């Protein structure tokens, strides 16, 4: 009966009734354009109806989500919406006619006693969630290692560690150099942990992993609307996040030349200019950079800025490769096994004397990272408690077989007569390089991306060398 009466009412009467209600009501179409807003809502917003109707709802009502509901078709009930300095209770409903989403209807009201209790609980939940993520973010921006985590007693390693400890209290830039997998990032963490900045952020950035077109926004951040697809409100760059702390720029040799000049200016002026920004932001940070490349050679070739090199290379710490610190292999292996045991819920894992001896005779082109890989593989296939030669990958377990396939043998060195055959240096280097690439590919089961990481090469560089040496 009621529906029949409503159908006979003129549409203007229905609008008048809605207009007189104390509820604040708004109706939008699929695009979020206001089709109707009652006078009660207009008085609350201090706008005229004729101004509001036809406008995008976001231009008239602050913090609205009406345009979103009109698109998703999902109702939103009892939500909190700050408007004109008041926190209102908002309800938003999709409008569906003949199974088609045509828009949305929304209402807002002042919270009553029940709403206030609900609002208080919601606000507390939001505060708790915010604090959780804030704590999580702070932990992620802290150093994870200290000097006690740097394992080794060989003189060459202790010299590097002692120098790192000595300079940790300084604010000068540090350049960590060494082959891939030697533990440069661990040194960076430890230096920050022992510095005066240890209570402030430690931000690590791998320069080789960032696409060139995103490098500037990632490093320096961007302002709201700086480019298409930019996050609303902008985003802080890694340099800004590291303010008062330490920025660790890993694989600095892969930083584009255009960014090198901008980074140099930042280090000289102690300020950053975000993409799309109209003013600079002062920052105070320490830079630790790392590379497995010869930066001086890159400077000579015009691939790295000389002035930036000298700015970064105030204190140079060379991290020795594993093959030059054989006495450290056993204690490092034990430390790695302790970590793996926690991950695999094991205990009491041992290394046989044959395995330790084999490790000492291996050249470890991938250094500690390769050793971690070998031990993780072993613990995965281990039945008992002791890792034997049979648990190692083929190139360590049976190097003669690998050599017969074209790889090098670590236990079958060349005879004296072979050593006396001198070849042109360029040819010898090429031969060694070719064999190391083959070894890495055997170790990674032909995975060129992993092999490139193991060798400390860029992916493109490895592909070029494989083509050059006809390695498939």
TrEMBL record:
It comes from the Bacteria. GO terms for molecular function: ATP binding; sequence-specific DNA binding. SMART domains: AAA, PAS. Keywords: ATP-binding, Nucleotide-binding, Transcription, Transcription regulation. InterPro entries: AAA+_ATPase (IPR003593), AAA_lid_NorR (IPR058031), Homeodomain-like_sf (IPR009057), HTH_Fis (IPR002197), P-loop_NTPase (IPR027417), PAS (IPR000014), PAS-like_dom_sf (IPR035965), PAS_fold (IPR013767). Residues 150-380 form the Sigma-54 factor interaction domain. This is Sigma-54-dependent Fis family transcriptional regulator.
């Amino acid at each position: 009966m009621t529906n029949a009466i409503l159908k006979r009412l003129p549409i203007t009467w229905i609008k008048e009734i809605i207009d007189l209600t104390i509820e604040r009501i708004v109706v939008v179409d699929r695009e979020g354009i206001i089709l109707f807003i009652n006078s009660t809502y207009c008085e609350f917003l201090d706008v005229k109806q004729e101004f509001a109707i036809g406008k995008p709802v976001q231009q008239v009502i602050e913090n609205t989500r009406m345009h979103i509901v009109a698109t998703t078709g999902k109702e939103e009930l009892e939500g909190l919406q700050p408007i004109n300095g008041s926190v209102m209770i908002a309800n938003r409903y999709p409008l569906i006619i003949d199974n088609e989403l045509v828009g949305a209807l929304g209402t807002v009201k002042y919270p009553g006693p029940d709403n206030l209790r609900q609002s208080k609980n919601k606000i507390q939940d939001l505060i708790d969630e915010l604090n959780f993520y804030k704590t999580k973010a702070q932990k992620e921006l802290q150093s994870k290692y200290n000097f006690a985590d740097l394992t080794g007693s060989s003189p060459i390693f202790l010299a590097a560690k002692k120098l790192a400890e000595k300079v940790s209290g300084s604010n000068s830039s540090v350049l960590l150099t060494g082959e891939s997998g030697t533990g440069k990032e661990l040194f960076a963490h430890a230096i920050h942990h022992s510095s005066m900045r240890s209570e402030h952020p430690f931000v690590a950035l791998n320069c080789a992993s960032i696409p060139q077109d995103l490098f500037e926004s990632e490093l320096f951040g961007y302002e709201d609307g700086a480019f298409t697809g930019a996050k609303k409100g902008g985003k802080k760059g890694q340099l800004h996040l590291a303010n008062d702390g330490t920025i660790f720029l890993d694989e600095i040799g892969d930083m584009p030349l255009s960014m090198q000049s901008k980074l140099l200016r930042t280090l000289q002026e102690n300020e950053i200019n975000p993409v799309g920004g109209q003013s600079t932001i002062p920052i105070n940070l320490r830079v630790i950079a790392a590379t497995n490349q010869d930066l001086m050679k890159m400077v000579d070739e015009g691939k790295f800025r000389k002035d930036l090199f000298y700015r970064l290379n105030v204190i140079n710490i060379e991290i020795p490769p594993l093959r030059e610190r054989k006495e450290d292999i056993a204690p490092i292996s034990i430390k790695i096994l302790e970590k793996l045991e926690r991950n695999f819920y094991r205990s009491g894992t041992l290394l046989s004397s044959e395995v330790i001896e084999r490790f000492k005779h291996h050249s470890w082109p991938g250094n500690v990272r390769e050793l971690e890989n070998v031990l993780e593989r072993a613990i995965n296939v281990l039945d008992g408690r002791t890792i034997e030669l049979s648990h190692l990958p083929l190139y360590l377990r049976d190097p003669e077989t690998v050599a017969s396939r074209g790889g090098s043998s670590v236990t079958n060195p060349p005879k004296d007569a072979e050593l006396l055959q001198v070849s042109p240096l360029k040819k010898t280097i090429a031969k060694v390089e070719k064999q190391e690439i083959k070894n890495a590919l055997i170790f990674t089961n032909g995975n060129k991306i992993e092999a490139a990481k193991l060798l400390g090469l860029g992916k493109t560089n490895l592909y070029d060398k494989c083509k050059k040496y006809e390695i498939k």
